[in-house]
Write a structure and sequence with these properties.
551 residues, alpha/beta, Rossmann fold, six-stranded parallel sheet, 20 strands
Length: 551
Amino acid sequence: MATTRSGAQILVDQLVIQGTDRIFTVPGESFLSVLDALHDCGTIETVTTRQDGSAAFMAEADGKMTGRPGIAFVTRGPGATNASIGVHTAMQDSTPMILFIGDVARDDRDREGFQEVDFTAMFSPLAKWAARIDNAKRIPEYLARAFDTASSGRPGPVVLSLPEDMLRDQVEALDRPKVVAPVQPMCPDAMTTLTDLLRDATDPIAIVGGAGWCASAREYFAQYAERIGLPVACAFRRQDNFPNTSPVYAGNLGYGPNPKLVERIKVADLVIAVGARLGEATTDGYTLITPDHPDQILVHIHPDPDELNHVYRTDLPICAEMHEFAEQAALWDDDLLSFDSGKVAHAEYREWATVKPNGASLDLGPCVAAMQDILPADTIISNGAGNFSGWWHRYWSYGAFPSQLAPTSGAMGYGVPASIAAALRFPERVSVVIAGDGDFMMNGQELATAIQYEANLLVIIIDNSSFGTIRLHQEREYPARLSATTLRNPDFAMLARAYGGWSAVVERTDQFAPALEQAMQQTGLRLLHLKTDVEHLTAAGATVSGLRAKA
C-alpha cells in the first residue's frame, strides 16, 4: 500500500529494505532531508568522515568485504569530485558500491548554479550506471535497479544524483522488495570440456582473482585444486581469494612477483583464469599473458559475459558465478587427474616468502615476520599505493576471507579509510593499516574518524621521506636527478597522540616486535612510526645505489 512520504524518507526506507546497515558521508546542505530521515532510522548507522574521498573509500571497502553495495552520500560539486576516486577504485576493483550525490534543485539545472555539475556525464565513464532521480515516486524503482546493477555480473559502482527539491517532495510511492542478484549457473558441459583440457595439459596453472569470491567459494576451489595438484596463483592484490597455506598455492602476481612464478606462467600450456580479469598489473602490462597468448590455451571463468573475450582470445569461456563454479569443480569426478606441479610451485612460493635480511637498520622483511608471529591469522591488512606494500604482498600470509583490502586501481590514501571500515565491520578482528608516508598523508585525517567511532585500529607508517614508487621510476629513468619526490613529514607519532591515540617510534629492526607487542596491549587507535632508509626501494631488492650503478 502506498503512503505519502518525502522523497528523502522513501529513499531511506528503500535502503533499509535492501539491507543497508551503514552509510559513510560528509554531510551537505544538498541532502539535509536525507540526514533528517536517517535521524529516526534505527537500523542504519551513519558514519561521518572528514573528506568525501574517504567516505567513498570506506563504502568501497565495505562493499568488498560484504559482497553487498557499500553506500556513500556526498554533496554536489566538490563533494562529488572528491568522491570520484572511490568510484574509480570500485570500478577497477569490481566492487559493488552506490554513491548518492545531493544535487541542485530541478528548476536551477543548466544555469551553472552553486556547485552544479552534470553528474551523469561526469560519472558515466567511471561507473556501471550513472543517473539522476527527478521524480520522487520513482525512487524505489531507481534504487532497486541500482542495487541490482551494482551486484550483478561484474559488480561495480552506481552513481545516483538527487535534486534537493525532489527529496522534499511529498508523494505516494510503492516500495520495491529486496533485490537478489541473479546467480549465473554453470553450463552443464563446461566441466567436461575443462577436464578434457586438463587431461591433455602438461603444465597447467590457475590464476584466481576478481570479484564474487566468498569464504565457501575459495574453500571449494582449494579442495578441487589440491585434489588434482593444480598450482594456483592470485591476481594482483587478491591474495585472500585462495588459502595461502594451501599445498598448491603458488604466490601472487603484480609488481615484484616471484621470478619462478613468472616463468611458470610463461611456460604453462593451459591457463585457467577464475574470476580474474587478467588486467595490466597482474599480467605485467599484458606481456606475461598476452591477449592472443600463442601456444597457450586460456580458460576464462567470469560471472559477466561481457568480460569474456573482451580483451583476451578465450579458448573456453565459462560464464559462472564464483561459488557455482567452485562448488561444481569440488564435486566433479575428474578421472583421477594428478599433477606434481602444485606441490613444486608451493615450495617455490615458500622459498620466495621466506624473509631474507637486506642489511637495512630497519629491515621490513623481519618486521612482517614478527607481525605474522604476534597477530592473529585472520588479521585484516589494508594498504594504499606504494612500494612499501610489496613487503606485505611478498611475506604476509593472508588468512581468512576477507583479509586483504588493497586497491587494484593503485589509489593512494586508501588504507586508512578502508581499515576503519574493516574495524567497524569486523570489530572482533584485528584491523591493520600499512601506509607509506606519502600514502598516509592523503587521508591521515581519518584518524579522527577512527577515534570518534572507537575503532580498534593499528596503523603502521613506513616513512622514508619520499614518494618511493615514483623515486624508483625516477632512479631508473633519470638516475640521481631528484625532482618532486622528496618529502618533509610531520612527527607521525606525535600526530597520533594529538588525535587521542597511542604511538611509538621504531628506528631499528630489533625495536619493532617489542613495539608491536606493546601496541597490541592497547585499545583504540595505535600507531607505529617506522623510520626507514630510502635506499631500499622494494621487497624484491631494488636499491637506489644499485639502480644508479646500472645507469
